[in-house]
Amino acid sequence: MSQAPYSNDSDDAESLLEFERLESTLPPALKRSASSLFEAIQSQNPSGHSSPNRENHFNSSWINTGNPTPRTPSQHAVNALLSKLSHSENGRESSPIPVPRPKFNEDIVKPAMNTKQSSTGVLWVTERATEYGFDAENQTDWANLGQGAPEHGDTVPGSFIRPKTIPVPDYSKEYAPTAGIKKLREAVANYYNETYRQNKLSKYTYKNVCIVPGGRAGLTRIASIISDCYLSFFLPDYTAYAEMLSLFKNFSPIPVPLDEADNYEMHLEMIKNELTRGVSALLTSNPRNPTGRCMTPLHLKQLHDLCREKCLLIMDEFYSHYYYDDGCTGSSISSAQFVDDINQDPVLILNGLTKAFRLPGWRICWILGPEEYISALSSAGSFLDGGSNAPFQFTAVDFLEPLKVRAEMKALQIHFKMKRDYIIGRLSKMGFTFTEKNIPNSTFYLWLNLSHLPGKLSNCLGFFHECLHEKVIVVPGFFFLINPQNLSRLEDVIWYNYVRLSYGPEFNSLVLGMDGIERILHRFGCLPYDPNQ
């Protein structure tokens, strides 16, 4: 397929400057990524397509030395590189160059302030998109496939109508207990007992439930009450874990990278190895963010049997109702099904209204666990966050009637599976390959492999850069390299070749996003068809 001619030298220089400015806004640990991209483009094979061997394609000296490779290529190489990064590469028209503002003004004295704090992945991509004209409150012409939130309107057929107003009686104007109001705690306990524990002797009570103001607040409370232990977590996973795990010094976080070739499955042998080396706490999302996969019930049971009485399991289950393996019947998967004794098994389960009930702005979530853990989490809330919004808690009680939840989840699963199938269908036609192993069976995320694409598109930062010009937001894969305190050298698993796409937004945003990606691939001459025919 023919490609448009490159722009003139001044436009080329501007485009390179634009890309370097984009790189300059990255968290320090990720700035080296663009060096890899520059080298990858220069070492591109004669066919013009990226090498299928990722290690060779991104072979940079910093992987061994820890230092970025100096950019001192020949003038010919510089000119070629400028052309490949130009504004009008393969037909893209010029667009304004963003000038990212410094995160901190170094001319202003800031006593005792930590100026090295980095943005999480979703916040970083939103900041960059804003510099390109994205407006979070008025985004009709943008496809935000980066935000980790589901559509929140009355747009899901069969779903209950979201409240437009909520009552605020006098008793809800008081501070709510830091463990949450008793009615909501009872409703959560009853829901889990009816849904997952009907055949179990041990039942949850309100004393096993702590209401928290959002998932991050719940994780922060948990981090504050564990001490003197090694905590393992598995990569890739939720980007906000990085800040939570690095903030507290009362435990040692240990990142455990999963195997890309094995579709990031968490094998029991790996868990055994972690327990053998003295790990006494495990944190994981199930279903997993960003891969969109979840453990089978048998695998989850075996995990619990292995860890029982040996290791605290911290199970982030916010996507447990986005579960498509059971025919979209409204069923879900949860560790609550495999807890033997709710006060003996050291298992903490996080969930809430954020994802399943599509009410992220309410910040009403919960933690289930043994009474002693819940008591400690309640105490932690008194000095960390002060507890959750009282009127929202009272309103949420009625949402949790088990049969109502089942009907709601069935509607949700049918709708989101339809959206998943749409983007997989569109991307398949564009040349992306999907198998049973990499098609998400849960969540609303797609972990998209770019390695077959040419040049800069095979690198998540280069792909992200081109997406911004098409008003599409994605999350570069290297943000899911959670390495708190930089305790481990994990450059070899940095996932340059992946981006995370969210099919959480409304359907029209998915159409805009797929159209934008199709235009990018068309300009680079790597579509298997001509969209104009």
UniProtKB/TrEMBL annotation:
Residues 37-51, 58-75 have a biased composition (Polar residues). It comes from the Eukaryota. The keyword Transferase applies. Its cofactor is pyridoxal 5'-phosphate. Residues 172-484 form the Aminotransferase class I/classII large domain. It holds the Pfam family Aminotran_1_2. InterPro entries: Aminotransferase_I/II_large, AspAT/PAT-like, PyrdxlP-dep_Trfase, PyrdxlP-dep_Trfase_major, PyrdxlP-dep_Trfase_small. One of its GO terms (molecular function) is transaminase activity. One of its GO terms (biological process) is amino acid metabolic process. Gene3D superfamilies: Aspartate Aminotransferase, domain 1, Type I PLP-dependent aspartate aminotransferase-like (Major domain). Keywords: Aminotransferase, Pyridoxal phosphate, Transferase. Residues 1-20, 37-75 are annotated as: Disordered. Belongs to the class-I pyridoxal-phosphate-dependent aminotransferase family. This is Aminotransferase class I/classII large domain-containing protein. It comes from Scheffersomyces stipitis (strain ATCC 58785 / CBS 6054 / NBRC 10063 / NRRL Y-11545).
